[in-house]
Amino acid sequence: MNDDVRNIVLGVVAAGISAALGWVARTYLWKRRLRRKQSFFGLPDNSESLLVVNRGAGGPELAVMRYDVFALLELAALIKDCNAHAQILPHDTARQGFGERTEFCVGGPASNRRMAAHLSSLLPGVRVNVDSEPGPDRGSFQIGSERYRVDNGKEEYALLARLTAERSQNTRPVYLFCGQTAITNQATTRYLARNHERLARKYGNSSFALLLKVINSQAYGPDVVELVEDVTRAAQTPLPAAATPRNTHRAS
Fold first, then answer.
1. Which of 54, 88, 159, 174 could form a disulfide with 178 if both were Cys (CB 3.0 to 4.6 A apart)?
2. In angstroms, rounded to a whole number, what is the distance separating the alpha carbons of residues 176 and 81?
3. Torsion of CA 157, 163, 166, 168, to 10 degrees
4. pTM of the model
5. For 146-205, how does the pLDDT look when each residue is reduced to its tens digit (9 = 90+)?
6. Helix or strand run (H / E) with residue 4
7. Residues with Cβ < 8 Å from 157, sequence gap 6 or more?
8. CA distance between the termini of the chain
9. What percent of the chain has pLDDT over 70?
């Protein structure tokens, strides 16, 4: 074997080793990223999860509003990426506890009994105005001493929460997507899909509650979302019986 052939062989071998090492490194990083995502969502391989949604008022069959369907699609993609499975349940048939399976609950308490129960037991510092009569406070959020009113199509608020039962390290989380309008439910799930890595780095597997604001949804749909603030402490602190908000937030 002359020098030219030997150099060619050595080059091919070196290229093969480099390619193999690169593949191993990429695979390791991909698996580590996947494990972090699975841990944040509580979705190990082949695990089961619940998607709890509103039942339409038009009849006994399961009917979901268009924007809530889009929200479910956002969540279904996240669940599939974690190599997990999902079961869809109407809110009025999900009569079970939480912690055994990761739960994604979509919709406000006015139309989602499961959401109302979660807010009452897990976020006692949050009140949502569910009055059916028109009025300036209809659909508004009260979180602690602050009130956030809805201005349809211009400024609308939503609550994104990741919650786990206290004093339990093995419980699966409950994710709440509680918007003032249907499109804000989708905006909240999209925000989670886009920012879950940052949220996982910041909060790990701890509980959190974030107040989001959807800007000009009549023009931009669910895409323009701002983080207003972390309201975890206020949302988890029970409100006094006669609590009245000091400040009102509304579109200018």
1. 159
2. 20
3. -170
4. 0.82
5. 899 988 888 999 999 999 876 555 588 999 999 998 899 999 999 999 999 999 999 988
6. helix 3-41
7. 141, 148, 150, 179, 180, 184, 211, 212, 213, 214, 228, 249
8. 82
9. 75
d(CA 101, CA 45): 13
DSSP 169: S
- The radius of gyration of the chain's CA atoms, rounded to the nearest angstrom, is 23
Residues linked to residue 62 through DSSP beta bridges, in sequence order: none
Burial 152-171 (b: 16+ CB within 10 A, else e): eeebbbbbbbbbbbeeeeeb
Whether the Cβ atoms of residue 175 and residue 229 lie closer than 8 Å to each other: no
Q: How many C-beta atoms surround the C-beta of residue 130 within 10 A?
A: 12
244 pLDDT tier (thresholds 50, 70, 90) = low
Q: Which one, of 130, 122, 152, 146, lies nearest residue 229 by Cα?
A: 146
pLDDT average, residue stretch 90-106: 79
**Helices 182-203 & 3-41, crossing angle to 10 degrees?**
120
Identify which has the larger pLDDT, 100 or 189. 189
